[in-house]
Amino acid sequence: MPTIHTYDARTREYLKTVDWTPPNEWVALPADATTLQPPAQREGFACVLNLAGDIWEHIEDHRGKAGYVEGQPHTVRDLGPLPAGWSTTAPEVPLADTKAAKRAEITAGHDAALAGVVAISDPTPTVVAVEAALLATTDPTGLDYARQKLAARRAELEAQVEAATTAEAVMAVVVSYPV
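== Tail fiber assembly protein, putative ==
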């Protein structure tokens, strides 16, 4: 009963060692198997059989590591060295970009809150427009009050963003509106 060593068909990475009995005398080895003994495992490396099938090689194994390549998020999926431009440090986002993103979040929150005040059950654009018109004719003071409260909160949030001197301070601004 020979001992064989199986490997992954795509990566040729060592999988396991098993005792194997050929089903017929004319069967030499199953697919993706060899009798060549793999070397001892090394931390951070995978044992890979070369294409000729005569040498096991230690190949760097960083699969699953998350980081950045040229500033873009990247997760390593293949065997081999880390890609060129690899970093585990997130790229620094310019403060102006962080503030612009937070301002957009503030505006979207304001618009959603106003839509919720006007059309609580179904804040689709058409319903919001119709309900706002109805509210303006039936309770103009209530609509003005809601608009003023939401506008004041938006101004407060925008002032916090403008006063922030770091991206962390900008991200700490919690966008919320009273509804």
